[in-house]
Amino acid sequence: MSVVTNTTTIGAIEAPSRRNTELLLLAFAVVIPIFAYANVGLSIHGELPPGMLVYGLGFAVLSGIAHLVVRRYAKYADPLLLPIATLLNGLGVVLIWRLDQSERLRNLAKRSFGNFSESAPRQMMYTGLAIALFAVVLLVLKDHRVLQRFTYISMAGALVLLILPVVPGLGADVFGAKIWISVGGFSIQPGEFAKIVIAIFFAGYLMVKRDALALASRRFMGLYLPRGRDLGPILMIWAMSLLVLVFENDLGTSLLFFGMFVIMLYVATERTSWIVIGLLMSVGGATVVGMTASHVKVRVNAWLDPFACYTTSGACEQVGQSIMSFGSGGVLGTGWGQGNSDLIGFAANSDFIFSTVGEELGLTGVMAFLLLYGLIIERGVRTALAARDPFGKLFAIGLSGAFALQIFVVAGGVMGLIPLTGMTMPFLASGGSSVLANWVLIAILIRISDTARRPAPAPAPSPDSEMTQVVRPS
């Protein structure tokens, strides 16, 4: 006698989406800037800011919309990227509003332009537009691999974005740097968007050419040197970065593009020689341009000794004031609204806004902000490691590398570690182009992480597995 039993297959347990974790973190990311806003109002005016309720509700609504879009269209995305970006953006608006309350900046603007307009409301408007663009990217970009089709179109688009600021009648010269274009009364910084577009080209190109760049090489003094024809891409990017530096006087964008390419090249080929070659070429190019371009030479001199030309050069005065801001902040800072970083002038809420952090929040606040930036970079690298396709891996590491380089060149410039670059601190500094571009960057990383963490579809059930005969002896 035998017994026949029916057994059915058990489906795989669905991976957790972590959206509730994201919602909880997002609540903290909204509450912390509101408390900071109240703290600034009490410190400067002795009372709560009159627009505190409107600001808090508006910021909470924008954050909630972003969360709902992620919950619906990127269910398995990384749960930390959106809360951290929200927290940084919210604190950035608070820092800008704190500087708007400075009587020194108000009087300076009235003497220079005849009137003064607060930057914080405009920054809040840019934040709303940025989160709307963030939602559009997640709605339209269903699969990041679609961007691979536009490899060479993206290269052309990046070149156009870089050329626009030097077009007569369209580009604008702001404090010696030609990195802006003026359209309909609004100023746009195309380089902020170019870093995303050119990352698409780098990822698509290196995915196809990585074997030739990695394997076809010659060994010299312990390094694997590439063939002459394989040096073409790095020479082209090097030349492009130098042209940006020469014609636009923009040291930051030049370092950003070339550094991002070298990082992606190293990740694609795993050849240390590319890092060495890239560093030598960047140092050589920067040295030549620094000796010939007057704008870059001024910034190098301000970096070497800002107090030697303090009374004769605006760049030296800004760097000197920034260094003194960090020094007066100490470990714990002077407190929200109690510093004097507004002495830096108009650049206090853009290029040098990190100096306000250093003075009013001290070394502790600086490390906290750098830790938040580091978490975004770490989650981007983790996303690259988890991505299942080579294009996604290179694209995620390129965006993370570009973000890391921008943090380094901005923080290093205002702290006196490297020459001043003129770039803006992501999410903190005043400016619509930076906020829009960085929210797009976060949206793309969220899309890649959603694809990487999404569970693989369960295999179709086999008819043979629906019933298993188990024969037991009677």
Which descriptors would you attach to this protein?
17 helices, 474 residues, mainly alpha, two-stranded antiparallel ribbon, 5% strand, 5 strands
Strand content: under 5%
Shape field: globular
Tally of individual helices: 17
Mean pLDDT: 82
Measured as a percent range, the helix fraction is 55-70%
The H-and-E topology, N to C, reads as HHHHHHEEEHEEHHHHHHHHHH
Residue stretches low in confidence (pLDDT < 50, at least 5 long) are 1-13, 465-471
Structural class assignment? mainly alpha
Cα-based radius of gyration, to the nearest Å: 25 Å
| N→C terminal distance | 5 Å
Strand order of the largest sheet: 1-2-3
Oligomer: single chain
How many runs of DSSP E, i.e. beta strands?
5
Please give the largest β-sheet.
Answer: 3 strands, antiparallel
Summarize this, please?
The protein has 17 helices and five strands. The protein is mainly alpha-helical and 474 residues long. It has a domain at 146-455.
Q: Explain this structure to me?
A:
- The chain crosses the membrane at residues 23-40, 52-69, 81-99, 123-141, 153-172, 192-208, 228-245, 251-268, 275-296, 352-373, 394-418, 424-446.
- Keywords: Cell shape, Membrane, Transmembrane, Transmembrane helix.
- Residues 453-474 are annotated as: Disordered.
- This is FtsW/RodA/SpoVE family cell cycle protein.
- InterPro entries: FtsW/RodA.
- The protein has 17 helices and five strands.
- α12 runs parallel beside α13.
- The longest helix has 27 residues, at 19-45.
- The strands form two sheets. The protein has a three-stranded antiparallel beta sheet with strand order 1-2-3, with no helix packed on it. The protein has a two-stranded antiparallel ribbon with strand order 4-5.
- The protein has a domain at 146-455.
- It is mainly alpha-helical and 474 residues long.
